[in-house]
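Self-study notes.
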Amino acid sequence: MGFLFVFLSGYSAVVAIIASELAGFLPFLVFFLIGFICALVGLLGNDRAVSKIWSRK
């Protein structure tokens, strides 16, 4: 799930650059931060830590 958000952040950054809009970098930051945290917890943590992020048991 984290890598999907990182992919979306890259896509939104490319679209923001093409459109020459600074406001387009807000989705990039949000998607990247969510993706980075999820990927980091997923790689270094366990299933319980990941499920806590998504509020699932």
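Second protein, same conventions, sequence then structure:
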Amino acid sequence: MAIRPPLLQRGDTIGLVTLGSPLDAIIINTGAQFLRSMGFNVVFGRHVFSSGGIVAASAQQRADDLMNMFLDPSVKMILATRGGTGVQTILPYLNFEVIRQSPKIISGYSDLTVLINSLYQFSNLITFHSLMLIDFRLETPAYNFNQFFEATSTLNSPRIIQNPPDVALRSLVPGNVTGPIVGGNMTSLVNALGTPYEINTQGKILFLEETHSPTTMIFRYLTQLLMSGKFQDCLGIIIGECTNCPVSYGTTYDDLINNLLVPLRKPLIINLTTGHGFYKAAIPIGANVNLNSTDNTLTVIEPTVS
């Protein structure tokens, strides 16, 4: 069973870190103030405001910020400011055993996908494919906050992950499987293939989402995941949205799913709202879930915090 981090409560301290691309200081400070208005204390990583080009700071500096948050006993949750690119470069500098001994809530999506899956894979820690600092703002829909806090601030179990009422989950291959859930952004996962941090899908339920990639690129990603055995190893498949993904050669995102994944005959649902879409379901990486693609339900069957 994976390690559950301690639950988050009002008055707790949240540590902010920039682990990939830089983010404007005004946006960071605005998000920090929003968290304070919700009743949390905020501390900043040393390099949270750094801007060194494509990435905010060196890999060692960004990794040190993350490790310092895990080592700080006053910090209950670690929140990435944004994704962007370059998160995977910090992985060789992390001490996964120290992280295992100091479990905390950590949340993110996009390029954070490779981190949150590695923390589960190497530290056995449940992490959250959910909100980043850029999502803590007035414009964020209540659905996203409800999902986030139900996953991180309650012991509710079982928890059914439901799309907003006007967005239906759809089954393409019926079935019923239970296992740990892993996955996230396709770009991030494919970039890690062939490295020590390649995702392990053996006996897992794999979910995927993407943004701003034409369907020619999605075709490449899905083919690479197929040829590396990731779909063959998994128990079932959940496909999220592909936001702002242009159609290429008259072939849509749905066409690719039907042509490449349906023939595998693994339990398969599509249209989960998480990641880059407007609505963001909170997916607990490493937690046991039940995927019932006959009834179109996704249920987290254990508490994800302690």
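Instructor comment on the second fold: The longest helix spans residues 25-37.
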